[in-house]
């Protein structure tokens, strides 16, 4: 059984979709939700879906091995970022080589890096006059949004689209593709996507 931990900082809609996708799967389960935000709605989702959740502080993540110890304690094999806003520190990247993936709401390398998340990304896409945007699923390394890209999916951006409409289109791609890509990466069958 491959045990997944999901890191999320906000609403957790992607986390919920991933949990639902793997419910009843004999090989893969979401075993833990971790958040740095005690107000994050993902905690309500975790409770409702009966997935254990742990809240940690920024210092716990950046300056200690506390978060790594939590992952080890729960026998986590694979880490998924789903709207997690902090940089993953080197001790986690080193402990989980090619076993931490993230989803970014744009076509990297465009519109990535520190501070580029959520609505800021969609606003930047609109401001740049892009004709398309999408999602990028990538391995996590020690820099924001610079890990090797695993998968991308695109959607058109119409001239009249607001950033909110762009966000909705991107969310649909996230929900459609992220769980399957996670499963493919875990099963080492990413080439079959």
UniProtKB/TrEMBL annotation:
Domain named Formyl transferase N-terminal: residues: 3-182
Pfam families xrefs: Formyl_trans_N
Residues reported to bind (6R)-10-formyltetrahydrofolate: 58, 102
Residues that hold N(1)-(5-phospho-beta-D-ribosyl)glycinamide according to the record: 12-14
Residues marked Raises pKa of active site His (site): 145
Presence of keyword Transferase: yes
The protein's Enzyme Commission number: 2.1.2.2
Name of the featured protein: Phosphoribosylglycinamide formyltransferase
Source organism: Fulvivirga marina
